[in-house]
Fold this protein.
Amino acid sequence: MFPTTIAGSLPKPFWLAETNRLWPRWRWDGADLAQAQRDAVELMVALQKRSGIDVLTDGEMGRRHFVHGFLESLEGIDFSKLVRERIRDGRYEADLPTVVGPVRRRSPVHLEEVRHLRALTGRAIKLTIPGPMTMVDTLHDEAYRDRKALAFAFAEIINAEVRELAAAGLDVVQLDEPAFNVYLDDVETWGIAALNRALDGVGCRSAVHVCYGYGIEANIAWKKSLGAVWEHYRRVLPALDASCVDEVSIECAGSCVPTELLGLLAHKHVAVGVIDVATDRVESPEEVVATVERVLEYVPRERVTLSTNCGMAPMGREVAERKLAALGEGALQARLRLGS
């Protein structure tokens, strides 16, 4: 009851990369970098186990950024040709690599990472991959000039990738789609269809993570502009409920998303964000339980997983570790008080 996981990323150790950065620079290169990344994964797996996390990730230790860490292995994308543009419907600016031709997968992107993670634990393991719409929104496109066409090209790539990862022992794949909370018309007209194509017959459990983003300054400022109630999900959640995905990951801690909207996910498991990543204040186990109590008014307990709101990549490591401990302890308390 109430299995635990994290939305994906954890802070990188200072000896691996710059800290408290969303786009950190590596401290190493070549074979030294690869070994440092493997060492960091082992450290993060041990941290998650110690914190009582049931479904483990690699903490995204092999990626500078949750989107570009996948895209940099693909053909047709030029990372030397960066264009500064506003993304996420103008939320903030970023330097975007350019799509210069047909996008293709040269070889498996995350296969070795999954093999390494699988060898470290007998627990269920999860890997995160950016979803098709979010990939499109994090690129400057000079080749397709059609967001839908480019998204479906990425969906084919994701599908081939996840099939190989599942065969290597991956239990859960999570597609990250923060773009789903801003491009609502596109979500309904082609975003869900691209998501379905990406996950069709992949051979493992599937999840999609839709949230209001990391605890970086641009996201915090944007959320303040949204008002006291965030109603975007009134359109997104019914569309996701009709999709092929098994689980929807959504933020519920320190959030202005009305909890009753989770009732729109009548057929899905829900990974409930009970840990806020936009503040350094560490939740108490009692606060975690209180969030779960609110959610159980709308989602049956057998369909509830406890998670972080979003990734912790830009967060200080000490704070992140304390928040993971609160997640694990809060889950224990929730099982004792609410598990029957």
